[in-house]
């Protein structure tokens, strides 16, 4: 049975995963992925755990919509139980990311800025590199951004 109760939950989870991906893509493009992993390993591990919990509503919805039954169960998963489990996974994901310090934003410019703030807060770059990165970011926002990739 197809239940449309989960669609709003899946939309929220999709945008949450997208903002997480944008942040880590910006960190990776700047070349500070290993340093972030060394200096703040719990930040990376916490985000991976939150991403796993954010992916679970998609798995639950797929199991419900395709009609997969669990072992030793006579019938499919109840749509209300599936919606409750998806909502619980979303709440756990949000509670894990509750202390992210505003790292995730809904657009690329905010993701770049939060990546720069995170790198600067971990003191991986000095003031001259931060000034250069900020000018490059401002130029990228005003001009064509493809020449900096």
UniProtKB/TrEMBL annotation:
Transmembrane domains' residue ranges: 6-27, 48-68, 80-98
Asked whether the UniProt record includes Transmembrane helix among its keywords, one would answer yes
Keyword set, alphabetical order: Membrane, Transmembrane, Transmembrane helix
Source superkingdom: Bacteria
Q: What is this protein called?
A: Uncharacterized protein
Organism field: Pollutimonas thiosulfatoxidans
Q: What is the lineage of its organism?
A: Bacteria, Pseudomonadati, Pseudomonadota, Betaproteobacteria, Burkholderiales
């Amino acid at each position: 049975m197809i239940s449309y109760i989960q669609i709003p939950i899946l939309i929220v989870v999709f945008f949450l995963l997208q903002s997480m991906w944008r942040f880590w893509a910006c960190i990776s493009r700047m070349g500070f992925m290993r340093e972030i992993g060394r200096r703040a390993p719990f930040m990376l591990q916490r985000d991976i755990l939150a991403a796993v919990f954010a992916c679970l509503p998609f798995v639950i919805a797929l199991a419900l919509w395709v009609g997969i039954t669990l072992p030793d169960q006579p019938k499919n998963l109840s749509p209300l139980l599936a919606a409750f489990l998806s909502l619980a996974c979303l709440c756990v994901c949000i509670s894990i990311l509750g202390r992210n310090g505003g790292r995730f934003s809904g657009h690329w410019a905010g993701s770049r800025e939060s990546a720069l703030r995170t790198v600067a807060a971990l003191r991986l770059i000095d003031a001259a590199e931060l000034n250069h990165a900020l000018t490059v970011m401002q130029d990228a926002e005003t001009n064509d951004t493809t020449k900096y990739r």
